[in-house]
Amino acid sequence: MKAKILVIGILLLMGCSSTKLVSTWKNPDIVLFDAHKVLVVGLAQDENIRMEFETRLVDKLEAKKVEAMRSIDVFDVEFTSSQRSEEELALVEQQLLDKDFDAILFTKVVGTESKRTLKEKVHNIDRMFMRFSTDYLEHQDIYYDPESYDSFNIYHVETSLYCICDGKEMELIWRGDLDVAETVKVDKTIDTYIKLVTDKMGEQEIIFY
Question: Please, where are the H alpha helices in the chain?
Fold first, then answer.
């Protein structure tokens, strides 16, 4: 089964967690930031993952009494099916401003990295080998058997918060960089990702504080 992963839109392996917060950046000119109406954008080719991610993040925002909408309900199919120009995006920004949106929360995959880990034989965990020959014979397949290794992808994901400011270009308020490990447990990965992002935003007095 080919593992699906969050784009968005969702990167990361650390300890027993498949998702890791790598770094954050906050606009130094901003002390705290509140938003009243947020557009949630998950940039993903897989429409089901995009829908699930945007829906859960909208729910999280609305739990904080912040009005939010999914991009899947705002951008029509034609808009996302081909490349758009700077002029077209400027028009979209103005339309959002006219509809009283004051922020965009934008998540996307910015890169991937292939990883290999050595499989541990369950019956050998914590086992002590008293003779070199026994130890060698038990593990020699590491030399030649590709099945001795697991391969998976790490997705580098960014979530950025932009302020929609009247009279000037959108300003970056906050950004989080995360690593997400390839997994078949998409629902759990989405929930973990959203929790990491919103908890950190809250710590830095951005919307979720």
Answer: 47-63, 77-80, 86-98, 132-139, 186-203
Residue 196 neighbours by CB distance under 10 Å: 19
The tokens describing 154, both together, are 């790490």
Which residues does residue 180 pair with via DSSP β-bridges, in sequence order? 19, 155
CB atoms within 10 A of CB 55: 16
Which pLDDT belongs to residue 92?
Answer: 87
Cβ(106)–Cβ(160) below 8 Å: yes
Q: Decide the pairing of beta strands 103-118 and 37-43.
A: parallel
Coil, strand or helix at 118: strand
- Check residue 88 and give its pLDDT: 86
58-to-69, 71, 198, 203 alpha-carbon distances in Å: 6, 10, 12, 19
Q: What is the pTM of this model?
A: 0.75
* CB atoms closer than 10 angstroms to residue 156: 18
Q: Taking CA 94 as the corner, what is the angle to CA 202 and CA 38, rounded to the nearest 5 degrees?
A: 20
3-class secondary structure for 12-40?
Answer: CCECCECEEEEEEEECCCCCCECCCEEEE
Residue 57 corresponds to which tokens in the numbers above?
A: 């993040």
Amino acid occupying residue 208: F
Strand partners, 152: 115
